[in-house]
Write a structure and sequence with these properties.
Number of helices: 7
Low-confidence stretches: 174-183
Order of helices and strands: EHHHHEEEHEHEEH
Number of strands: 7
Strand order of the largest sheet: 1-2-3-4-5-7-6
Helix content: 25-40%
Shape: globular
Largest sheet: 7 strands, mixed
Strand content: 25-35%
Radius of gyration: 16 Å
Length: about 190
């Protein structure tokens, strides 16, 4: 059984080691999530710990998926801080450990983030992902709209420049009433 939970800043810090292991596995597995291989474990740990302030302030929401107590996945929503953009959020760092793939964890995490965004008053989500990746097919099958691709956008973990595809998805209802970002949790 898989349990998905949203992390507070202290909880994020408490499981930073597990999140660093997940990040390292994701990069080692070839996923383009912003890091080059080999990813130094200390750098991965530092990166996660540096997210705690954003979680504490409510600018970042992080969920983890655990199966039989083992952390096998994560997803985050990054919330803008500008008044004219509080109706939207960016889906970031959807990662599933190679040992947890093929179990629907990616879909579960994606659905969790989408539902939480709508509950927080967000009406528009956006993301970017490596073109022709497995993640791209997940987003398409989940009803995300492909906006286009940017060539040579980011380097893969091996250093090869690859295009990225931009997606968006409308969530929730009543966009004008929700533009204030009401309902967003800060911790």
């Amino acid at each position: 059984m898989t349990a998905v939970s949203r992390l507070s800043a202290p909880e994020l810090l408490a499981c930073a080691d597990e999140l660093a292991d997940l990040l390292a596995d994701t990069v080692d597995g070839g996923a383009s999530v912003g890091f080059l291989a080999p990813l130094d474990r200390a750098a991965a740990l530092s990166w996660w710990k540096d997210r705690a302030d954003a979680v504490s302030s409510g600018h970042l929401a992080v969920w983890v998926a655990r199966t039989e107590g083992r952390l096998l996945g994560t997803v985050s929503l990054a919330f803008p801080d500008k008044p004219n953009s509080r109706h939207r959020a960016e889906l970031v760092k959807l990662m599933v450990h190679r040992a947890g793939r093929g179990r629907g964890l990616g879909r579960t995490l994606l659905t969790t983030a989408e539902q939480a965004a709508a509950a927080a008053g967000v009406t528009l989500l956006h993301l970017d992902t490596e073109t022709d990746s497995l993640a791209e097919s997940l987003y398409r099958s989940a009803g995300w709209t492909r906006l286009g691709a940017i060539p040579d956008y980011a380097a893969t973990p091996s250093g090869e420049l690859r295009p990225t595809t931009i997606f968006y998805k409308r969530v929730g209802t009543g966009a004008s009433a929700q533009a204030t970002g009401a309902g967003r949790s800060t911790g």
